[in-house]
Amino acid sequence: MRLDRFDLNLLVAFDILVEERNVTRAARRLNLTQSAMSAALRRLREAFADDILVQHGKKMFPTAAALSLAPEISALVADLRGLIARGLTFNPADSQRLFRIVASDYVTTVLIGPLVERLEKIAPNVRLEITLPRNDIAERLEDGDIDLIVSPERFLEGPHPRELLFEERHVVVGWSGNPLIRDGLTEEVYHRAGHVTVSVSRDGTFIDNHLRDHGDRRRIEIVCAAFSQVGWMLPGTSRLALMHERLAQVMARALPLRIMEPPMALPVMQEMMQYHQARAADPGLTWLREQLRSAVER
């Protein structure tokens, strides 16, 4: 096989085919027809003199040769993507680039939402695709499916670069008419009240994991699927919740809530940005990170 006759796009097809082990799903991920994906598989078989994928019953399995090549080809594809990204200039005023960001609804509410208003003026055609954290975000970052992860430090994995975006405190929030906190919040009152918390993934949340590690004694009465739902569960009740301070301040502008200092010491959360090493010099991604840092300062 001569390199000057090899279509490098086939490496991308190889990477996805071995990962998906299904021609139809691989075609969908690459926005190709099934026949085009089948043709790519046929060309890969000819180029490598190997079946790459073999049918067994209703499933397809990579050959031993394909499995041995997969890590190197995956890394090569990531490096090529980074090389192409670094070679492009980035002008936010006329760029139509799509940035794919993994961030919680909390980060979207307090940071990305306000940033979008500024981007409308300085980068009107830049697009954002925001997805909630899932258990596979490390793999998606490795595969180049996402550009940036915004997450607490303890949930980041892998060797890729990470930068501090901001630090966040947690505060106790309750209905402004809550009779339990009329005379202030003590640790005894805190543990006597029912609590609202959040479950966003099997990894837990930063503050819940800390409390669990230190003998959490809260009586959990409501579990929400998103951080931004918590504030709505408090008015008219005697329940309390631990919330990110920035989010609590946003919610208190819309709801009759009272924000109080916790009656116990809690760690400060470090919200980080992580991106693939291959995109460290990507001018567009560098610009996006700068915009996020500026939004924190505003």
UniProtKB/TrEMBL annotation:
GO terms for molecular function: DNA binding; DNA-binding transcription factor activity. Pfam families: HTH_1, LysR_substrate. It comes from the Bacteria. Residues 6-63 form the HTH lysR-type domain. InterPro entries: LysR-type_TF (IPR050389), LysR_HTH_N (IPR000847), LysR_subst-bd (IPR005119), WH-like_DNA-bd_sf (IPR036388), WH_DNA-bd_sf (IPR036390). PROSITE patterns: HTH_LYSR (PS50931). Transmembrane segments: none annotated. Keywords: DNA-binding, Transcription, Transcription regulation. Belongs to the LysR transcriptional regulatory family. This is LysR family transcriptional regulator. The lineage of its organism: Bacteria, Pseudomonadati, Pseudomonadota, Alphaproteobacteria, Sphingomonadales.
